[in-house]
Amino acid sequence: MALTKDKKQVVVTEVVDALTKSKMTVVAKYQGTTVKAIQQLRRDARENGTSLRVVKNRLVVKALQNVDTLKGVDTGALKGQLLYAFNENDEVAPAQALATFAKLNPTIEFVGAISADGKFLNADEVKALATLPGKEQLIAQVVATLLSPVNDVTNALSGNLHALLDGIEAKAN
C-alpha cells in the first residue's frame, strides 16, 4: 500500500530526527533476507543501542537534504532494498551489529555509512569500522593501561614487604 503525502512527511521527519541524533548511520542491502531473520537482527541490534529502519531511499534522500550538515552526502549508492542502522551513542555499534549478523546471514551486505559530520564511507571502510572495539571496550582498555603502572608498583612494594617480613621472622627464630 502506498504512503500518503502526509505519512511520507512523517517518515521523513522521523528519519531526519534519527540522522541528526545518530553518530553513524550504516546502510546495508537486505535483499533475500527473511522477515524472521530481520526481526532477529532488530532484536540483536537493540541490545547495543542500535535501531534499524527500512525506508524508501527517496525519503532518506529528502531527509538528508533537510539536515544542514548532511546536505552534501553522496547519495549515489542508495539504490535497491536497503536498511538503515542508527545509533546515538556509539559510532561503531551499528556496523558491528550488522557484521555479526552477516556472519550467519550472508544476505546482509554493507553499502556504506553516513557519519554525523556528513561523510559517506564506502562498504570496505564500514567493514574495517566493524572490526574496531566498541566505545565501552576502548574505555576499559584505556583504564587498564592507566592502572598497569599502579598495579606494578603495588606488586613490587608488596613483594619487598613480604621479603622484609620473612627476613625479620627468620632473625627472630
CATH architecture of the largest domain: 2-Layer Sandwich
Measured by DSSP, the beta-strand proportion falls in 15-25%
DSSP helical segment count = 6
Biggest sheet features = 5 strands, antiparallel
Give a description of the structure:
- There is one protein chain.
- By secondary structure, the chain is of the alpha+beta class.
- The protein has six helices and five strands; from the N terminus they run αβαβαβαββαα.
- It folds into two domains: 5-132, Ribosomal protein L10, N-terminal RNA-binding domain (Alpha-Beta Plaits); 133-173.
- A hairpin with a 4-residue loop joins strand 4 and strand 5.
- The longest helix is centred in the C-terminal third of the chain and has 38 residues, at 135-172.
Relevant terms:
single chain, 173 residues, alpha+beta, Alpha-Beta Plaits
List the helices and strands and how they pair.
Layout: H1 5-21, E1 24-29, H2 35-46, E2 50-54, H3 57-65, E3 82-87, H4 93-104, E4 109-115, E5 120-122, H5 123-130, H6 135-172
Antiparallel strand pairs: 1-3, 1-4, 2-3, 4-5
